[in-house]
Each structure stands twice: as C-alpha cells, then as structure tokens.
Amino acid sequence: MGLREILTGRSAVKQPAARERLFALSTAYVTLETAYSITSAGVAGIVVQALATSDFQSVLKDTEEVVKATAGDFNATVQTSDDEYGFRWVVIRDPAIEDLVVTINGVSSSIEAGGYGERILCAVFAFKAADGAAINFIYNYKRGSWYPFVPAPGDKQRNTERELQLKAQIGGELPIEPELERWFPLWGVPF
Amino acid sequence: MATKRSNFGRDRGLQARMGLTMFLLGLLYVVLVGVLIAASASAVVIVAIALGLFFVQIVGSDKIALATLGAHEVSESDEPQLHAVIERLCIQADLPKPRVAVIEARMPNACALGRSQKSATVCATRGLLQMLDDPAELESVMAHELTHVINRDVMVMTIASFFATVAALIIRFAFFFGGGFGGDRNEAEAIEVVILVSVLVYAISFVLLRALSRYREFAADRGSAMLTGRPSALASALIKISGTIERIPRNDLRTAEGMSAFFIVPARAKNSLMNLFADHPPLEQRLAALSRLEAQLQGTGR
Fold first, then answer.
1. What is the CA radius of gyration of chain A?
2. Contact across the interface for A11 and B223, Cβ inside 8 Å
3. Which residue in chain A is spatially nearest to B152 when comparing CA positions?
4. Looking at the partner chain, which of A5, A119, A184 has a beta carbon nearest the beta carbon of B87?
5. ipTM score of the complex?
6. Mean pLDDT of chain A, nearest integer
7. What pTM was computed for the model?
C-alpha cells in the first residue's frame, strides 16, 4: 500500500493474486500420495463472500449452472451452502484431484469474469493421511499461496506440528505461505 | 455488470475535504516553523523535547493505551467467534492477524491501536460482543477497526498532530516561565510573537485535526463496507451501539402524525458549531454515507 492510499484513506479490496498457483496442487499431489501416503478425500470447496445484491446473486447462479454443466463430464457433484459468517461455499466432490482443481478454477474464473474477483476468499482441498487423520490444504486467492490446516481433536484445536511437517515435506512443490501469521484456520468446513 | 458497480465506494467529496484539511494543516505548520526559525532562541530545545515525546508516542502509545483502557489479550479458545470473524476479514483484507483484546466494560465500543500493521491490536468491549449477537454486525464493526489499521490512522494522526504538540509545549513553557527567558528587548519581542503564533496555531490546528479525524472515520466506514460488502450491517450496528434503536419508530404512523402538529421546531436542532469540534462525525451523516454505499452496491445509486 502506497503513501497515497495512506494519506487518502482509500484502501481497495485486494483482487486475486496475478500469479495463478492453484494448479501447483495437481503436480504436488503425486508427491503427497507416493512419498507420504496422503490421499485426496475427493472433495474440495471454494469460499466466497456472498453479497446481498441481485447482480452478485445472478453471477453466482450463472457460475453454479456452468460448473454443474461441466461437472457432468467429470462425474463430479456440486453443492452450495451458506455458513454462519455469511459466506457461500461451493463444494465439489470428485474422486480425481485434477478434476477438482480444474472445477474449482472454473468457479473462481467465472466469478472473476462477473467482476467480483475481490469477493473470493480461498479454496479448501480435503486430504486423508495414512492413519485416517484429516488434512486440509487451503489456497489463499489474495496471496496466491497455499498452507496446510490440520484440525486436532477438541474444540477449535489445530495440530501445528503436523502443519509444519507438511510444509517441510511439500514446500518444494507447493508454494507455501511464508508468513505463519497468515495461516488462518477455517472452522466449520462443510465437508 | 462490472460497470454497474464501478462506482461502489466512490467518494470524491470526502477525498477533497480530507486533502484540503491536510493542506491547511501543512500551511499552518509551515508558518509555525518559519516563526520558530526566525526567533531561533529557545525554539530548538522545544522542538527537541517535542521530538522526544513524539518518539515515545509512536513506540509506546499502544501499550500505554491498552493498559489505561484495561484491555486484556484474548486467545482463540477464549473468544472463538471474535477470532473467527477477524480471521476471515484478515484473509479478505490481506492483513496479518492483529492481536485481539477485550475490555471488560458494559459500554459497547471498539478501537484499533498500534503504529503498523504488524504491531496492531484490535479491541472490543464486552458490551459490544454481547450487544452485536449477529455475526454480520460484529464483522462490520471489526472491519471498520481493521480499516483503521490498513489506513495507518494512528500513525497519520500522530504525525499530523506533531506541530500542534510543539505549539502546545511552547504555550506551556511561556506560561511557566512568564516570558522571562529573553535578555534584551528585541528578543523579548520575538518571543512574544512566537507565543502569539503558537496560540493561534494550536487553536486552528485543534479544529483542523478534529476535522481530519472525522474524515478518517468516514474513510473507515467506507473501508468496512468495501471489505464486508455489507454497508447496511455497519449502519445497523452503529444504530445499536449509539443506543438509538428508538430511531426506528414503533408508533403507528397515524398516531405520530397527529403529534407532530404540536411541535413548532424539530425536537433537536442541528448544532453546526458542535460538529466542528467532535472527533467522530454525527451518526446521521455516517448512516447517510452508508446508505449511499448500499445504493451504489445494489446498482440503484448514482
């Protein structure tokens, strides 16, 4: 943020990062599976801040229709739900991770084309470790970076040790968010 | 469809007023510095003291303020809802997460402290958390405070008031030493001029700084609306906080109409002089600005 924005107090909401690093997961996934036995849970979701305007609702509706139409080619299913914070989740289920990445990218591109890119928060991809523990990889659209999020048993606890291990394991292939204070948790993921 | 919302958050008038205020403050300070340099004498000492104070304020003001407010930092397990709301806003605003603190007071209020984005603390009172049970309203108030962090308002206001502090110091010194720090007559006269100018600078900058502070509040309201996309949620929260929920009438229109004939003037006349000195803009103006934003967002406004 420049001096001019500070002096005028005119901050703009950040658009999605210019460098698209979402697709890094399609290749990093191979390492996750073969070297660390971490497999896709076959589900991913994208989180969008839902505006209560007719224009935004129609963009979102068009997006959902396009995704549902293309999802048929992949054997994917699409669901939407709203969470308690007023965010819209578009949840996609597909056994193939490459299809999940492509479909999630389709959702975000369609919303961006509608002129609402700044309302896209992040995408969450669910994985399972060999011991059955749930692992999430979150893609932050604003920063174009990934981070792991591993919920632990108990109320809103996270397994930070495991997350840091994952960073060391996959950091070479997946662009991981360098600032740990931006590894924001997402509680109440609807899958 | 992008054209429909391209004017969302447009606020030329506010920008112009803020720019004019900053220009006038700058002009005023140039006059003060000019007079100080012309008089030279003990002015250097005073500026040095002011710089020292300024440094302490920049480095330690947030800690001092947190201590005097009685705020205590809360962890995620203490206040899961508040943390979750702030975390999502931080992703949206692309901010590192600030420290989160709560003040155990029943009066609903919130504040943001800290000189930079990395050292920021966002504070809410217990009363606010209890009053705003709707997450969207809490979110919009926190977005307002986070916008203060994004716009670096603490830093802007501290720097803007630096020379006002210098002027205040000069007046205080003059008061204590009674102008007895001059030897010959010329120097005594010069010091009288310095004191006179300082009083003027202090008085005018006081009004200008208040105006600047009000414009920063409007900018923070706007920033909150941009971040959450919900100007009306902030308006609703402001109405609740200011305790004017009665503003939305509960009486039937027909009974109200019968009563209004008995009033010769509106119940509360607008006091424009008071507005000049308030550091927060009046609620009516903030609500009006937010309703313009909502109209722009819905595509029905200009």
1. 17
2. yes
3. A6
4. A184
5. 0.77
6. 89
7. 0.79
